[in-house]
């Protein structure tokens, strides 16, 4: 058996299930889950229709690199969304959702025979980054997010010797769970570090189309182009239809950026056998070529967040994020230190039958503390009425919650 499998940490939901095993949620109230970040808005009809229309063609193996019209749909979208002109032949590749691609990129990039192979990731973070790094034979170093600076990651907490060993850096903007968007200055600093130390930046942008400010979130490739880095050297952006088009079950996304890296990534993927089936490719072409459903989807999130956030902000330390579909809230504490997110989540479930994710399960202890401690993540993926009902229950609960 591969001994690296033993290094994997249990997934946050597994840990939550174990923590809640002995709890009976209040049976008088209907269960509401704000736990899992799985889109629940309706899949657009145009995607479903494209699936039906695409059923012909199952008798051939699909190309791993995708059909030309799919790759052109990616570059067309990059042009409209970011004003970027990428080459559909060399600078984009289809992937089965960002999750598998974020995993696969570490297997492509990391050379475990180099001493001290290191992958850096934000903290809290999407757990796939860590598992991908560990299974690639690297060690993981975590950079904490800073609540005092809109949860910006403290990249400056990583010392030069660690950066020198780093082969891959994961960034997540808009961030899960914080919703923070990285500004150009942060990108500039990371590009300078990448140039100095030679590591690759994997930019997870799967929440890029759900945002609450006027300006759409800055993308990694867009930042690179603004800084004159039009070859996107050592940069790969990961984009997905799951959240943008409410199709997490389709398993479709794409990566874009440095052509030399994508060539190696395609080689890896060919052996791994990760081509998208023709039906998925057809549905993806339809989804990437249409923006109207994305605008409508964003409007639904905006209405929902505008109604739910003030209810929670009256009792918790929380504000409208830049983007994404999470609220990342501080729970009450009595001594100015972070509150007890696990006790808060368990008592909330027992008394009000609302599930939220304790923040400490989404982060590791680094630089002396766990930056998720004292926070809960609430995924506002259900309809507005259900999310509002949950918010009122959480507000009622918080008013009676006794911090230790
Ligand atoms: C930060 C982040 N990245 C990537 C993913 C994976 O999404 P998908 O594989 O559906 O594109 C998720 C899913 O929840 C996520 O939260």
From TrEMBL:
<dbReference type="InterPro" id="IPR004839">
    <property type="entry name" value="Aminotransferase_I/II_large"/>
</dbReference>
<protein>
    <submittedName>
        <fullName>Succinyldiaminopimelate transaminase</fullName>
    </submittedName>
</protein>
<dbReference type="GO" id="GO:0030170">
    <property type="term" value="F:pyridoxal phosphate binding"/>
</dbReference>
<keyword id="KW-0032">Aminotransferase</keyword>
<dbReference type="InterPro" id="IPR015421">
    <property type="entry name" value="PyrdxlP-dep_Trfase_major"/>
</dbReference>
<dbReference type="InterPro" id="IPR015424">
    <property type="entry name" value="PyrdxlP-dep_Trfase"/>
</dbReference>
<dbReference type="GO" id="GO:0009089">
    <property type="term" value="P:lysine biosynthetic process via diaminopimelate"/>
</dbReference>
<dbReference type="Pfam" id="PF00155">
    <property type="entry name" value="Aminotran_1_2"/>
</dbReference>
<dbReference type="InterPro" id="IPR019878">
    <property type="entry name" value="DapC_beta/gammaproteobac"/>
</dbReference>
<keyword id="KW-0808">Transferase</keyword>
<dbReference type="InterPro" id="IPR015422">
    <property type="entry name" value="PyrdxlP-dep_Trfase_small"/>
</dbReference>
<feature type="domain" description="Aminotransferase class I/classII large">
    <location>
        <begin position="32"/>
        <end position="386"/>
    </location>
</feature>
<dbReference type="InterPro" id="IPR050881">
    <property type="entry name" value="LL-DAP_aminotransferase"/>
</dbReference>
<dbReference type="GO" id="GO:0009016">
    <property type="term" value="F:succinyldiaminopimelate transaminase activity"/>
</dbReference>
């Amino acid at each position: 058996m591969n001994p690296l499998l033993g290094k994997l940490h249990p997934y946050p939901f597994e840990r939550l299930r174990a923590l809640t095993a002995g709890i009976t949620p209040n049976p008088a109230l209907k269960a509401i889950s704000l736990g899992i970040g799985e889109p629940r808005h309706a899949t657009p009809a145009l995607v479903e229709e494209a699936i039906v229309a695409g059923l012909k063609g199952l008798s051939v193996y699909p190309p791993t690199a995708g059909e030309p019209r799919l790759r052109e749909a990616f570059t067309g979208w990059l042009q409209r969304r970011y004003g970027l002109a990428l080459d559909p032949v060399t600078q984009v590749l289809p992937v089965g959702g960002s999750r598998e691609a974020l995993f696969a990129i570490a297997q492509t990039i990391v050379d475990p025979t180099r001493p001290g192979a290191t992958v850096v990731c934000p903290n809290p973070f999407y757990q796939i980054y860590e598992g991908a790094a560990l299974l690639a034979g690297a060690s993981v170093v975590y950079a904490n997010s800073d609540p005092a600076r809109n949860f910006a990651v403290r990249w400056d907490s990583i010392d030069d010797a660690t950066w020198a060993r780093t082969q891959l850096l994961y960034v997540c903007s808009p961030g899960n769970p914080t919703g923070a968007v990285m500004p150009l200055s942060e990108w500039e600093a990371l590009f300078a570090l990448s140039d100095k130390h030679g590591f690759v930046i994997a930019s997870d942008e799967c929440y890029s189309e759900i945002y609450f400010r006027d300006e759409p979130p800055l993308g990694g490739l867009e930042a690179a182009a603004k800084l004159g880095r039009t070859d996107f050297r050592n940069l790969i952006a990961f984009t997905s239809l799951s959240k943008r088009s409410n199709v997490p079950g389709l398993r479709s996304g794409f990566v874009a950026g440095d052509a030399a890296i994508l060539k190696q990534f395609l080689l890896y993927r060919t052996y791994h056998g990760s081509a998208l089936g023709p039906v998925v490719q057809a549905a993806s072409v339809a989804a990437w070529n249409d923006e109207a459903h994305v605008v409508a989807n964003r409007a639904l999130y905006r209405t929902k967040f505008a109604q739910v956030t003030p209810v929670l902000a009256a009792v918790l330390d929380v504000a409208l994020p830049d983007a994404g579909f999470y609220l990342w809230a501080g729970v009450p504490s009595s001594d100015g230190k972070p509150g007890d997110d696990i006790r808060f989540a368990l008592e909330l479930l027992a008394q009000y039958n609302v599930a939220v994710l304790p923040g400490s399960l989404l982060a590791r202890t680094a630089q002396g503390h766990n930056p998720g401690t004292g926070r809960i993540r609430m995924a506002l993926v259900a309809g507005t009425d259900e999310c509002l009902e949950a918010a009122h229950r959480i507000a009622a609960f918080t008013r009676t919650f006794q911090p230790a």
